Amino acid sequence: MPIIEVENVRKDFMIAKRETGMMGALKSLIKREYMRKEAVKDISFSINEGEIVGYIGPNGAGKSTTIKMLTGILVPSSGNVLVNGLVPYENRQENAKSIGVVFGQRSQLWWDLPTIESFELLKEIYQVSNQCYKKNMDTFTEILGLDEFLNTPVRQLSLGQRMRADIAASLLHDPPILFLDEPTIGLDVVAKEKMRTFIKEINHERKITVILTTHDMEDIEKLCERMILIDHGMKVYDGEIAMIKERFGKIRTLIVDLEESLHSLQLLGGEVCKEEGNRYWIKFNRDEVSASELIAQITKTHSVKDLTVEEPAIESIISRIYQEGYKDLQVSAKV
Ligand SMILES: Nc1ncnc2c1ncn2[C@@H]1O[C@H](COP(=O)(O)OP(=O)(O)OP(=O)(O)O)[C@@H](O)[C@H]1O
């Protein structure tokens, strides 16, 4: 069942034109001219209850603008948005009960207060019952280790602690939907992993629908099955990540450790792109030759100690799509 529905949504901003020089500045004091910036041009999608969807695209693509329309901060210029049955910008307070929001770049907590006091304030704001508050605080303290810093003012928390506090705060009122905007930005590898595990767990245990905006493709790879890719305010892909990998991830790398080092290794259908001692990295196109064919060629004349086949990470596939454009991507609207 769809919990979020976005239909032909546009968002234009009117930006004041800036004229250069003193005369220009004087002119714009008398008569200001505006130009239209189309941040979101025409976007439609629907998200089912319990999904984790990656909402990605290059800088300035329109991701935050979309999320702001879903959270009710911005009103679309045209089109329809329904979040858990409500039009977010017409029912901001009611909508706030259905959603949790985490912005990696800034905290929603009170900077000068001890963390626990921010939680207590949010409890009042969202009218969370004592029972629900206790249940959530117990769970989040256990999984996120909140007790380590509950009495520390938010401004003194490390980035990792601040993110843990923020995500716990966003879930105190048991919202069915969670918007995460760069939830792992700036975190070290271990903290990133912990955050991802937590997101997976709440999605799994509580069936919370998650929309994740990130530039970290590992977040996408580890958390989402589906991704919506946007650019210049338009949706350019909506579908399974596995499909993108299938279509764009044809170049594989075979890594072999040989018993002896060679002058050169010539293979039909494969190209050595790197070598170090007895280790060789061989690139090949899965459509033209299989890994086993390459291995058979090598083992005819050489003894192999070890081998692995590397699939391209979604990171390199997406960066190729960003660079080379979206011509080959067929938008497959998911219903
Ligand atoms: N309040 C605003 N006034 C004018 N233009 C805006 C406003 N907010 C966003 N824009 C413009 O709309 C476009 C989309 O911005 P948006 O912040 O949605 O992109 P984004 O995909 O979230 O980018 P990033 O990955 O850099 O955060 C950009 O060109 C941006 O400059």
Automatic annotation (TrEMBL):
Gene3D superfamilies per record: P-loop containing nucleotide triphosphate hydrolases (3.40.50.300)
**Listed PROSITE patterns:** ABC_TRANSPORTER_1 (PS00211), ABC_TRANSPORTER_2 (PS50893)
Sorted alphabetically, the keyword list is:
ATP-binding, Nucleotide-binding, Transport
Q: Molecular function (GO) terms listed? A: ATP binding; ATP hydrolysis activity
The organism's place on the tree of life at top rank? Bacteria
InterPro entries in the record? AAA+_ATPase, ABC_transporter-like_ATP-bd, ABC_transporter-like_CS, ABC_transporter_ATP-binding, P-loop_NTPase
Query: Any idea what this protein is called?
Result: Sugar ABC transporter ATP-binding protein
